[in-house]
């Protein structure tokens, strides 16, 4: 429970998931005296509290932890260093002047002022309406994350016989979880010609349990009046049009949707933060600063990460930079070097680098490719014809983020670069 709220804080963090927790802890440890976290949930930890599967913390703690255990380590640390937090509270608005308007059952309506803000609201799932599945509106159509909440936290089974649309990680993980609980997962349908989640989840959650995956397939319509009775699956062509004669009725009582995640950036837009149309997250520099002075972003609000360990790392960087800004230690007029997406690269984060900060943090360029390449490739960072950094990968896939670390030996080239263009090409 938070202490008596102050009217002004050095750093306010919006969101208390893995990114927000890391940002708040980092801000406090780097000299921010008054740090406040605000979250709409009843507990700290965010989405991790319903992710009871393992796979968290291998990079951060060198241990393979379930989500709640990973979150609890940061919750204890946040409480131990004296960070205030306000739960069951909704942030209504964030302004470019770093005012935060919040309301909740415990504190009513409050207007708070921050010297720096970290936005860490995470992401949300795409819904049926956003992908346009036709048919009636019976019970039994849910997002995979909602089903995860019901099964792992609330103790409810949403159905007995499932079809899952989309090969996102949450959907594949829930295919395994539901099987553990005695349900029948008929199959997973994926409209793309390739997997959109991590390969390890395909192996551990689908292959190990003999759950079929059909690529280039989608749900054409939902059948059922009061409850889902079946879905009609159909193959699609290269332009995602149904292929005539390929329709198949699959009896089921529940359809789960695992069709992508969207960064939660309504508050960011209210503050005037410019968003990247490719990621739906803010344009950020290497310190995760946005275009609004004193407003930083951390975690899945920037772009959707594959691993929570990476979310934590962004929070640590954003929190430290927010503390620096609050104390007046940030460069007010940086001259940035932009990054750019080259051959077979969809986007690159960060979008720009401040050469003066290169000694403060290790710069990690993270990107997603447009098309899969299943043979060895070379990831290159260039400035015109000058090669700055490179990395070999065994393969690249859209569902798996590619990372390239800029090392100290690269820094001098980065400082004098006009643009850092990242590309992927066969060896």
List keywords for this structure.
single chain, 427 residues, alpha/beta, FAD/NAD(P)-binding domain, Immunoglobulin-like, 3 domains, 7-stranded mixed beta sheet, 5-stranded parallel beta sheet, 27 strands, 32% strand
Report on the structure:
- Helices cover about 20% and strands about 30% of the residues.
- The chain is of the alpha/beta class.
- The chain has 3 domains: about 1-125 and about 260-330, 3-Layer(bba) Sandwich (FAD/NAD(P)-binding domain); about 125-260, FAD/NAD(P)-binding domain; about 335-425, Immunoglobulin-like.
- The strands form 7 sheets. Strands 1, 2, 3, 4, 5, 6 and 19 form a 7-stranded mixed beta sheet that branches.
- Helix 1 (about 20-30) runs parallel beside helix 2, helix 1 (about 20-30) runs parallel beside helix 8 and helix 5 packs parallel to helix 6 (about 200-205).
- It is globular and about 65 Å long.
- The N and C termini lie far apart (about 55 Å).
- The model has no long low-confidence stretch (mean pLDDT about 95).
The total of helices stands at 9
CATH architecture level-2 label of the largest domain: 3-Layer(bba) Sandwich
Q: How many domains, in number, for the residues?
A: 3
Which stretches are poorly predicted, pLDDT < 50 over at least 5 residues?
Answer: none
CATH classification, class level of the largest domain: Alpha Beta
**E-strand count:** 27
- Span between N and C termini? 55 Å
Query: Under CATH, the topology of the largest domain is which?
Result: FAD/NAD(P)-binding domain
- Overall pLDDT confidence: 95
| Percentage of residues in DSSP E strands | 25-35%
Biggest sheet architecture: 7 strands, mixed
Name the overall outline: globular
CATH superfamily of the largest domain: FAD/NAD(P)-binding domain
The Rg value, from CA coordinates, equals: 22 Å
Alpha-beta content class: alpha/beta
Residues in helix, %: 10-25%
């Amino acid at each position: 429970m938070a202490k008596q709220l102050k009217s002004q804080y050095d750093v306010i963090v919006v969101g208390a998931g893995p990114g927000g927790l890391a940002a708040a802890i980092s801000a406090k440890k780097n000299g921010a005296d008054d740090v406040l976290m605000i979250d709409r949930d009843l507990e700290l930890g965010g989405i991790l509290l319903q992710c009871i599967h393992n796979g968290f913390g291998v990079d951060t703690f060198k241990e393979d932890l379930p989500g709640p255990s990973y979150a609890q380590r940061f919750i204890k640390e946040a409480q131990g260093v004296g960070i205030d937090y306000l739960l069951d509270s909704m942030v209504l608005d964030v302004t470019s002047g770093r005012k935060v308007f919040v309301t909740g059952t415990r504190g009513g309506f409050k207007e708070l002022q921050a010297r720096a803000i970290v936005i860490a609201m995470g992401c949300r799932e795409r819904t049926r309406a956003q992908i346009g599945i036709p048919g009636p509106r019976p019970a039994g159509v849910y997002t995979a994350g909602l089903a995860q909440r019901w099964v792992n936290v609330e103790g409810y089974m949403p159905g007995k016989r499932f079809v899952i649309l989309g090969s996102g990680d949450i959907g594949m993980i829930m295919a395994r979880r539901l099987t553990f609980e005695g349900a029948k997962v008929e199959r997973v349908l994926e409209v793309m010609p390739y997997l959109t989640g991590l390969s390890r989840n395909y192996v551990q959650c689908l292959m190990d349990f003999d759950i079929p995956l059909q690529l280039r397939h989608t749900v054409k319509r939902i059948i059922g009046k009061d409850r889902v009775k079946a879905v009609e699956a159909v193959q699609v062509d290269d332009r995602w049009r149904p292929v005539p004669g390929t329709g198949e009725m699959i009896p089921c009582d529940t359809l789960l949707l695992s069709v992508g995640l969207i960064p939660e950036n309504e508050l960011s837009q209210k503050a005037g933060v410019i968003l990247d149309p490719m990621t739906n997250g803010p344009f950020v520099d290497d310190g995760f600063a946005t275009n609004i002075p004193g407003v930083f972003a951390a975690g899945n609000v920037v772009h959707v990460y594959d691993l929570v360990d990476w979310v934590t790392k962004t929070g640590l960087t954003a929190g430290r930079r927010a503390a620096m800004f609050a104390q007046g230690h940030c460069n007010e007029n940086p001259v940035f070097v932009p990054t750019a997406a080259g051959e077979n690269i969809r986007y690159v984060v960060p979008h720009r680098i401040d050469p003066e900060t290169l000694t403060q943090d290790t710069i990690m360029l993270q990107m997603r490719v447009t098309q899969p390449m299943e043979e060895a490739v070379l990831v290159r960072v260039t400035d015109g014809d000058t090669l700055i950094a490179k990395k070999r990968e065994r393969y690249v896939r859209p569902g798996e983020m590619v990372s390239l670390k800029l090392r100290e030996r690269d820094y001098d080239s980065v400082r004098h670069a006009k643009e850092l263009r990242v590309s992927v090409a066969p060896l």
